[in-house]
Amino acid sequence: MTSISVNRNDPQTANGLFKGFCTIDGSHELWHASNLENNNPDVVVPADYEQHVLPRLKALRPAIVRKFIDLAAFAPEPGKYDPSGPRMQGLYRTIKDANALGATVIVNFTITVPWIAGPKFFPRSDAEIETWSTVVTDFMKALTGRGCRVRYLQIQNEQDILGGAGLSVLLRVPMTVLRKKLDAAGLRVQFFAPGFYGPPPSQASQGVNALQAPVPGYPDVDHLISFYDKHTWYGHVPPDYDWRLEEPTMIAEVKALRDAAAKYADGSPCRKQVWDTEFGDYETGNDRWEKTPLFTIAALNHGLASIGMWQLTNTNYGYPGYPGTGGLLNTKMYGFAPKTAYWVWQIISTAVERESIVFHNGCTEAGLGALRAAACVVSEGAQTVFVYNLDLAEPASFSVRYLGPSTRFATIPPQVMKRRLVDPAHPPSTLIGPGLAGIKIERDTFSDTIPAGAFAVYRGQSL
Questions:
Q1: Residue 380 domain boundaries
Q2: Bridge partners (DSSP) listed for residue 376
Q3: Which of 41, 99, 202, 412 is deepest in the core (most CB within 10 A)?
Q4: How far apart are CA 379 and CA 382, in angstroms?
């Protein structure tokens, strides 16, 4: 039996607590005509959204919901706004539904409206910046005026579109001008950085360094953002590719970005957190689930403050008849049926609450053989533990032992660990409920055995 030690005096999340799991929700695009013509030719809104999509979002209990926005839905042409068009109606409805769930809403602009900046994707001239910042401010006014609450705004999706090393120069003036206009309008939405990613791992850290780089004669950009962002994609691979081989790259990228964000060029500390607002098994369109727990555990153990799953619905693609590329739910052609990846994400997303502490454990660095684990405390001392058996041939027996005392909880309250299990031999096709028999924590230890290739989530309940 393998022993996994959990050190409750060694928190892992950089610069604060874990903020909770994020789900990217593009369901507002069900109101988009092009999706009606492509992915979901028979979709009826809001009826299909209310019957098939919203209940699935509610079941995830997301701490954070991220929305991809095309500003052209609001400003289709120069001098013309369309705040009441169908796409905007879908946006208002879905943001307010996320607000009702208690989720923090973050909004991302996919690209700049073409009539503002043309093929450059981002405003660069003074005239373009003035027009763009006015449109964005008016867009945020439209959201606020209709009761939508947005906490964070990402004005550009990823660093590569902006030119990598020139990131600081390109963002500095637009962000400064927009910040002034938003403040003048009483809109306190906060900014976060474009998504940085690799491989190689150094590409992500170079993005942070570029954003921090000073430009003489201009105000600092870094102070305008609330957190750094990571995106996790690994290109196209064959369907039979061994997904376990990606783990070292996952960990190296997370560490590189975390370490780059920890301090400025002069060595002074940077107190910003690093989130990952975009990951998933893009290579298979989330038709596979195995990498989701692998990356979740790696991200938790190496300092990320949030992890965002791409994405709930297949609404950002336009492949006729394709069964749900990228979405956790299939298209209407398949009844919006959840994929196995949805059920796996459901037990992950609901297992950890906002403002949780993630602890160092014996699997944090190199793992213990085929086992991977992450451990945290959620509320009132209740423990949550993720355990993943990467051995696809043999079951794994293990014990989890808590070392302490914790700076927050002197002892572990008496509790029983309810287990939710994903067994690849019997992939789930419905909500994964807890096992009938709870596993008691006795003398700060609990033990279990899980099948080959299985992923288990243990959530403590008071006795």
A1: 2-10+358-462
A2: 358, 384
A3: 412
A4: 6
